[in-house]
Structure formats: structure tokens, C-alpha cells
From TrEMBL:
Ligand binding (Mg(2+)): 105, 244, 246, 248
EC number(s) stated in the UniProt entry for this protein: 5.4.2.10
Annotated gene: glmM
Domain called Alpha-D-phosphohexomutase C-terminal: residue spans: 375-441
One Pfam family linked to the record: PGM_PMM_IV
GO MF: phosphoglucosamine mutase activity
PANTHER family per UniProt: PHOSPHOGLUCOMUTASE (ALPHA-D-GLUCOSE-1,6-BISPHOSPHATE-DEPENDENT), PHOSPHOHEXOSE MUTASE
Keyword check for Glycoprotein: no
Active-site positions on this chain: 105 (phosphoserine intermediate)
Cofactor binding note of this UniProt entry: Binds 1 Mg(2+) ion per subunit.
UniProt function note: Catalyzes the conversion of glucosamine-6-phosphate to glucosamine-1-phosphate.
Name assigned to this protein: Phosphoglucosamine mutase
Cofactors demanded by this protein: Mg(2+)
Amino acid sequence: MSRKYFGTDGIRGLVGEAPITPDFVMRLGYAAGKVLASGRSGTSRPTVLIGKDTRISGYMLEAALEAGFSAAGVDVMLAGPMPTPAIAYLTRALRLSAGVVISASHNPFQDNGIKFFSEHGTKLPDAVELEIEAALDQPMSCVSSEKLGRAKRLDDANGRYVEFCKSTFPNELDLHGMKLVVDCAHGAAYNIAPHVFHELGAEVIAIGNKPDGFNINLKHGATAPAAMAEAVQAHGADLGIALDGDADRLIMCDANGRLYNGDELLYLMVMDRLATGPVAGAVGTLMTNMAVEVALKQKGIGFARAKVGDRYVLEVMKENGWMLGGEGSGHLLCLDKHTTGDGIISALQVLSALKRAGKSLADCTKDLVIFPQALVNVRVTPGFDWTKNAAMVAEKEAVERELGDSGRVLIRASGTEPLIRVMVEAREEDAAQSMARRIADKMAA
């Protein structure tokens, strides 16, 4: 069955337009609550944890979700602004029934979304999301007054998560002597990430840490890393760490302001693990640069591609029993450290690798020669099917013939926005750019 509301990362859209409206979100809370309650036996009621990023609309959607869960007889704990991976961790650590995050991740403040975590701290399986969608089609009612859910604040959420992040860093190492720029994207990690790195010994220069409800991801964070790179050079810092609005992505830069994306950081983490023992394999996505696959296979390490989206990377990792995976956008997963992608924990894995190697980011990734990759995003009407555009299909086939074995073409619909993404990898950057544009231009033909 196809999903009506859930995309690759929950339900997301423009606030005030369906489905991101208070009435729908209240019904969503009720439907999810009924699904959670249906599988329970005994007298205990399910409890969910709700966290959010720093968007102004978070207040409204939080209240709507709370009302829906209460009407279904589900208790609620409110964590306030917290990174998405923090909610995953706390849901598991507190033995709760589910976690809910109100966030649109890297999108601008006008957007928002809802995503769920299971009791195990993982994204909900497709089957459970379909069950929630089916419940949404049923009329909303309300349990009797004595069965209504209660709500309370989780006052120590920040401290719990800071300690968890620190626990993933090796006990024998510290960050003393390192100066780090930490860009929090004016998002959910603004009052958490700087403390993690500082408490491990680093001198921290925090930027993007003054959210006002409207500036999340604005000219800061993993989707706008220039601010981090400029700050690193201005302050003479050793490294820069940029998170996105809900802190599940990571982009880094070195002292020269040179940026390192998720593909390069994944490679670095794999090489660090390889130095201390065998690594069976790692998972990327259809968008992962060919250079990663080539480099890992040369070292006898398996590589598999998943559909775009960290939930699909996680599925393939579990199928193969592998610990490491990620996306070029900065979603990185270390399953021996956390159940989901976590920007702060990923940064700590990179920092520990650099400390162990005694080398720079550039030196640790010098064997990875990235293929030039061009990406063109074309905004389309919802439901647009590029495979039915004959001119576009013909141009894609022509480009593939020209590339042969020296590159590849990938066209896919975004799972979170009405966009068609055209990606071309080639040995030469100019060729990749011109070929991607050639294909994208056919969309209007």
C-alpha cells in the first residue's frame, strides 16, 4: 500500500496548509495514540515523549498533539526543544511507548513536520505508519474523563542527553587543546551541542545558537556551512562542526575552511574502525559518491546502496549486520553508538578518529578522490512522474551512453518536497554540470 501522509521522514509541509494544520495534527495524535494503545494489555497506559525544534509553529503543533494523545488515553511527556536523536534516545532510555518530534529538519521555518520513533528508538516501520494512516480515516472521539491522558514536563532532558553523547566518546581521549566552531543552525541543539564539546575539554565558539522562532537554518548550519567555515578562519579554530535544525545532520570543515560532507566523513569513520579491526561493510544511498564505493571495495570492505533517506540506510544496515552508514547530506549512522542518525555523536566519532590517528581531516581522507557530482533540483507539481516525460527519459539515456563506465545518472523525486532531483557524476565537473542541466531542461520541454 502507498502512504497518504507519511514521506521518507514523517509528515512534513507548509504550516497552515494540509496536512500541517492544528486540526489534522490533533487527529494524528489521536490516531497514533489509538494504535499505540491497541497493542497493550493490563492497566498501564502508554506514554509518549514529545520534542520539537525551535520553529515558532512548534508551540501550536505541540499543543495539538498533546490534545490528541490525551483524547486517546495516552500520557505525554514534554521535552521542549531537543534534537531529533535525543528524543530517540530518551524514548528508549525511559522505556516509553513512542517518541514524537515536531520538526522539518533542514527546511525553512515556514515548514514543519511530525516524525515518530518506536519504543526502541528507531523510526516507525512502514506497517505501523500505514496503521496510523488507517486510523486517521476513522472519526475522532474521546475516552471517558477518568481515562484521559496526563501531560508533564521532562525537566532533566538536556542533561540526560548531554551525558549520553559524552558516553559515546572514548574514555581514554579528550578534546583538550582543540578549538572548535559549533554551528547549531539556530535549531534544536542550540543549548546542547556546545556543552557536549566543552565538557569534553574543547574550547568552543558557538554560532547559530540564538533561535528566535524564525531563523532556524537561516544562513547557518549544515545546509549553509559557509558561516561555519568563515568563523573557523576568523577565530583560528582547528575544526568546524555544523548541524542542521534538528541536529541529525553533520557537515565539518578544517582549519582552512575546506568542507567535508557526509560521504567523506563516513569514509573516515570506516577507516578508523578498520585500523582497530575488520569492517564487513558500510551502507550509502543512491546519491553516495562513486568514490566511496570504489575506495571501500579496494580495501575489501563491502558497500551497499539504499534508497535515499536515513530510514532506508538503517534498514539495509540491519539486513547486512553492518554498523556504519550514511548520506552525503550528513546523516550518519553508527549503530554501535545510537539507534538513529545523530549529528553530535557523529562529530564525536570523527574527532576521536582524528585524535587516534594524530592526523588532520585532509590527511585522513586523502585516499578518497571524490567524483565531481552535479545536482539540479527542479520544482514540480505534487505527483509529477518524470518517467512519463519522454524527452527527459531520452536525454537521460543519451547522457548515460556518453558517460559509459566513467559516471552515472540518478533522477529521483524528493520524499519531503515537490522536487525532482537530477544528479550526474562524471570525471570532469564541467561535464557533470552540463549533463545534469541538459536533463533538467527537458522537464519543461
